[in-house]
Amino acid sequence: MSDYKLTALAALDGYQKSFEGAALEEQIDLAIVSIAVPLGGTEALSKALQESYGASLPKVGEISLSKDGQTRFLGMGNDQMFAIFDHPGADAAKLVAENLKDTGYYTLQSDNWTGLKISGPKCRRALERIIPIDLDPAAFPEGNVARTVMEHLAVIVLRDDENSFLLIAASSSAGSFLHAVETSINNIT
Prior knowledge:
The chain is of the alpha+beta class.
């Protein structure tokens, strides 16, 4: 038996920083589970989501929230969504599968992604400099989600409040991801 123990580390070492009019914080225990809908299984998965979570099947670009407010289901594409929730363990896919049974295909994505929450009255202005989608509340209201690019990086943008966004990018690009957002904030403050 080995004397070594592996310890998971946050991709950005728990980064938190406040700026004038904005704050940026790594989302450390963000569990991300990809859920694929089996061929012809939309109705069964929709029913299981309602029964287990009190949530509806999200449309592409929208979010459905569980009845306890702890799990968000992101409509990422046709027959594909992400379940995201706070959970520190490596068993998030198992938890989702226990609730939804065999109505979907589940893949743990947590370690593949890095989450940053940007908030404050200047957060939208900072993001508009580096994200090529209209983030105005009329065009991208609370509860919307989109895959897009941020400079040279693929990113998922989720509006979770009037002045708050959750940004998710590949953990392999975590340093560049943080640098792009932090630089944009610095350039507007």
